[in-house]
Amino acid sequence: MSITVTTWSLEQTSPADLLPAAAPDGDVRIVRAEVPSPEFSRFLYASVGGDIRWTDRLGWTYAQWREELERPGTETWVAYDRGTPAGYVQLAAEDDGVVEIVYFGLIPAFRGRRIGGHLLSYGAARAWDLALRWPGRAPTRRVWLHTCSKDGEHAMDNYLRRGFRLFDTEVKEEPEVATPGPWPGAQAG
């Protein structure tokens, strides 16, 4: 069985494109996870994407996670609500001043609380100033990402509200994959 999936690619080509969201009320902090931790990164990936069919990395080995996290210019920024991980944004520097927002999202219990717009704003700003933290890297000239019809219902609107512009759309059939939940056997949502 298969499903039709639409994938949208969006970009910003200047730091001035970023339209930041207001910070949410309460004790929400965003902190860079500076120590590469496959365990923590897998936890974030599975917890954020378990109800929206993020499955590409679930089969990765510890070594694959470590290799990905140790690539120069790769950063993970984590939102905490009163000390509890609420979501994350992962950045990956590419060649010639391009930075991809590889993953972005919130754990389901933290959605709808205005944390997502703030986290995306913060993550995009960190993509724009990434070269300041990675000596030898070219200054960022483009930040891009992709989202798809399997992602959360407010994802595309959040990207557009933050100043990202659509530059490509692709529609294809994909195999139907069960929603895995945050760990095998868990009920999502």
Short note summarizing the structure:
Pfam families: Acetyltransf_1. This protein is of the alpha+beta class. Helix content is 24%, strand content 32%.
Number of helical segments with 4 or more residues: 5
Q: Trace the largest sheet across and list its strands.
A: 2-3-4-5-6-1-7
Fraction of residues in helix: 10-25%
Report the top-level CATH class.
Alpha Beta
Estimated share of beta-strand residues: 25-35%
Overall CATH architecture: 3-Layer(aba) Sandwich
What sequence of helices (H) and strands (E) makes up the elements? EEHHEEEHHEHE
Describe the structure.
This protein is α+β, with helices and mostly antiparallel strands. It has one domain (2-175): Gcn5-related N-acetyltransferase (GNAT) (Aminopeptidase, 3-Layer(aba) Sandwich). Helices cover 24% and strands 32% of the residues. Strands 2-3-4-5-6-1-7 form a seven-stranded mixed β-sheet, sandwiched between helices. α1 (38-49) packs across α2. This is GNAT family N-acetyltransferase. It comes from Streptomyces apricus. InterPro entries: Acyl_CoA_acyltransferase, GNAT_dom. Residues 28-186 form the N-acetyltransferase domain.
